[in-house]
Each structure stands twice: as structure tokens, then as C-alpha cells.
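Let us practice reading a record.
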Amino acid sequence: MSAAKSTRKSATNRTVPVELTAESLVGVAVFRRLSATSRGELAALCQGRRYAAQQRVLSHKDDSGDVYFIISGKVRVTIYSVGGKEITFRDQAAGEMFGELGAIDGEPRSAHVMALEDSLLASMSREKFWQVLGSYPEVAEFTLKRLATLVRLLSGRVFEFSTLAVRNRIHAELLRLAREHLQDGNTATISPSPTHADIASRISTHREAVTREYHDLVQAGIIDQRRGELVIHDVARLETMVREVMGN
């Protein structure tokens, strides 16, 4: 019985290798300014693999140093407390990269990464990534700007956790999502809709608090949930609510 369970588990963790070309990397933001020839050279330095939805890509404290580029699909970056509580840092979609911190400083992984949906990822070893940073100024510039963005984002999150009440943190998280999915300047549709538990894990609260605040926001006409989508009808009003409590 245990052998059968072990076999099923290992099968679940298998990835499917994929040969990469210059075309494979066209949509990856860090390579967008490069020529087709340069992208072809970098594709040769990467390994392509398909991951199934809910499959683990990286584990917290792993010593691996590869950098990953999302060609298609979406991943979630999380960490778990000793008590098993899941804390979600962020979701990342096609075109983004992750794992560069471990490649740069050589430290163990700071979080888990799991495929949220079937995903095609390209990975590059730490050694090759350092070579690329030295040989391709466009890649080095993009990476530096990305790290600066992460620092600013984390600084903002620390401020929110230190000063905002739970309902205000919910508003701030919804505003972040709205800005990523703007349609006409004041309306955003997020599909699929994040669950109440997803939002709770992002802002360190419980699902019931999110449910209560969603109810109030629906009553106020600011958001609506329908057919697996979260519609934010008035992004400007949500932005004003966040600005009033954050002072900026």
C-alpha cells in the first residue's frame, strides 16, 4: 500500500520537458527588449518544463538557485506558519519571473511556489543567470528595476500591516487587484475571482472578516460577485477610501 501511495505521489510531481526557442521567450518581460537572435541564445540556456495545476515548483528553504520565467500559466508565492496558516505573498502570471533572489544572494528559498494552473516555465541556473546579467545590459537593468519595485511593494505592505485595520487592508488589496485588471479606467473585472480565503491569506486575517466586508462593499455598490468573477464597479471610490486612511 505504501509503495502504491509513493508511486502516485511521485507521478503527481513529474514535470514534462519542453524544448524552448526564441519564440518561447517573446512574452517574457525581462527578455522583451532583446532581438530574436539574443532570445534564441538565452532559450538555449534554459530548460522548459510543464507543471500541472497545484503542482509545487519550489519549496521554502530549498537550496536550488535557478531563476524561473513564466511562459504561460500562473503561479502563487506562499509561506506557511508553524501552525499551518498559509500566507500568500503574490500571484504571478505569464511574462513574469521568480527565483532571482536565491540566484543573486545564494541563500535558500524564501517561500513556496506552486502552479495555480497548468503552466509552462523556463528555468535558468544561477551560474548562467549571472553570466546573462553581465552580458546583456537590458536584462540586468530590468532585474534591478524589478528588485526596486519589490522593495517598494514590501515597504507598502509593512506600512499597511502596521497601521491599517482589517477592513482597510481588504480595500487596499482589492485596489491592487483592480489596478491590474482595469477595463475602462474605473471598472475592473477579476476572473477567476479570488476566494475569500485567498484574500484573507494575503492580508493576514480570516475568511469571515473578508466575507463581512465584501457584503458591505456589495451593498455600497462598489463591488459585485457573479459567475466566478469579481467586478469592481467604482475603482476611483475604492482608491479614495484607501487614500483617506493611508494619507497618500
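A brief commentary: Residues 30 and 139 are 6 Å apart (CA to CA).
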